[in-house]
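A favour, since you know our C-alpha cells better than I do. Could you add the entry underneath, on a fresh line?
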Amino acid sequence: MLAVLNATFPVFALILAGWLAARRQLLGPHGGDVLNRFVIYLALPALLFHAMTQVRPDQLAHGGYVLSLLIGFMVPFAIAYCVKRPPGTRRTDVAIEALANAYANAGFMGIPLCLVVLGPDSLAPAIIATLMTACVLFGITITLIEFDQHQGQHPVRTVLKTGRALLRNPLLISPLLGLAWAASGVPLPLAADRFIVLLGDAASPCALVAIGLFLAQAGAGGAPATVARIVFAKLIVQPVVTAVLVLMVFDTPPVWAWTAIIMSALPIGTGPFMLAQMYQRDAQASSRAILVSTVISVLTISALIALIQHQGLLRP
C-alpha cells in the first residue's frame, strides 16, 4: 500500500497544489492559461523531442501496441454515435462528446504518471500513446467537425485545413523532429542537450499544476446522464478494451502493455473542452466530465497501480 501511495501521491498532490493556487488566486486570473501555454509550446515539446532522440528503432516496432490503442480509442468514441438524440442535434456536438469518451489526459498526466510508476522504459510507449491521442484522435474529431461546419464545400478543402492544423501542433512536430535527429546519428551538442533537458524537466510538474488550475475553474453544468455516459466510456470502457487487447490478443512486452492500460485509464484531457470553445458550442458537459473523471480517477488509478505492484512491475 505504501508503494501505491508513493506512486500516486506526488501526481495528485501537484494537481491539488494547482487547484488550491487557483482557489486562492495566487497566480492571477490568467495564470492557468499562461502555464498551460508554457507546457504545450515549450516544456512538453522539449521533453518529447529529447525522449525521441533516445529511442531506438526496435522500440517502435510494436504494431500490436499501436493497434490496441487505436481500437481502444474507437470503441468508446463510437458509443457517442450509438446514442439516440433529439432531432436537429448538430454532428459537431456529437463529435465533441465522442472525443471526450476517448481523449485521455496523456501529455499532461499520462507521461508523468508512467515515469513515476513504471520508470524510464515506459517513456517511449507513453509518447506513442500521447501522439496518437493528440494527433490521430484529435485529427479525426476535427475532420468530422469541419465536415459538419462546411457542409456543401469541397471535402479536399476541409482535409487540407485539418492537415495544416495538425502540422502546427507542437506535440506532433517535436517528437517527429527528435526521431529524425536520432535517425541522423548526430549527437546533440552538450549545451543544447542540457538546455532541452532542463526545459523538459519542467513539463511534468507544470502540467500537473495546470490541470489543478483548470479544474478549479471548471464550471458546473451539463446533463447528468451525458456526463455519466462520458465518464463511464472513458474510465471503464476504454481501459477494459485496451487491457484485453494488450494482455490477451497481442504479444506485448509487459511495460508496454501496462503503459497502454495506464494511458487508457487516465481521466479526460482538456481537448474536448477546448474544441467546444473553439467552435462556440456548449462546453458545460465536457468541462464537468473532465472534473468528475479526474476526481474518480484518484481511486481507479490507485487501484490500477496496486495491480501493477502485484505484477511486480512497480518502479522501486
About this structure: Residues 2-310 form a domain with the Na+/H+ antiporter like fold fold (CATH 1.20.1530.20).
